Amino acid sequence: MKKLIPAFLLCSIFLCGCSYLSKLNPWGGTEEEKVYEAPEVNEFLWRAALDKTKFMPLSVKDAKSGRIVTGWYQVAGQPAERFKLEIRVLSEKLRADCLKVSGTVEKTVNGKWSGEPMKRSMLNAIELSILERARVLYQQSLDND
After folding, report:
1. SS3 state of residue 13
2. Is the full-model pTM beyond 0.85?
3. Which runs of E-coded beta strand occur in 47-93?
4. Cα separation of 37 and 42, whole Å?
5. Kind and range of the H or E element at 114?
6. Do residues 68 and 50 touch, judged by C-beta distance below 8 A?
């Protein structure tokens, strides 16, 4: 029994070392990379969000993650104010809780821009507009079938 203990320890050290040393072995097999797959997003919410922001410059438009970020947009006649939106389509379901809109408003004071979060009432109006457009797109898809 006493002869088995050193052999057991030696084997366990060797086996633990093999997993570490396999990373250093140039002839060893390559490990498969784990690829992160973003969840699919609802096509109607996605298209509606793009439709509602088509007048604004877009910084990020990633259909895989459902993320749209606009560039700064100034309303004509209001040069001292600009805003930016981030829209997230969170799921493949067509539901109101699968859409999240956030935004920032900046105003210029003495030539410097200072920002604050957009008012919740304005964000709710934007969300509602996107949801209504998504509903129309969905109904049009049913009529075309």
Report:
1. helix
2. no
3. 58-62, 67-70, 81-89
4. 15
5. strand 112-117
6. yes
Question: pLDDT tens digit string along 84-131?
Answer: 999 999 999 999 999 999 999 999 989 899 999 999 999 999 999 999
Contact 123, 99 (CB under 8 A): no
What is the chain's alpha carbon radius of gyration, rounded to the nearest angstrom?
Answer: 27
d(CA 65, CA 136): 23
Closest CA to 53 of 98, 99, 92, 84: 84
Q: Each residue of 32-82: pLDDT tens digit?
A: 555 545 457 999 999 999 999 999 999 999 999 999 999 999 989 998 999
| Burial of 68 from C-beta contacts in 10 A (0-12 / 13-18 / 19+) | buried
Helices 43-52 and 120-144: crossing angle in degrees, nearest 10, is: 120
**CA atoms lying within 13 Å on the CB side of residue 132:** 7
Residues written for the chain: 145
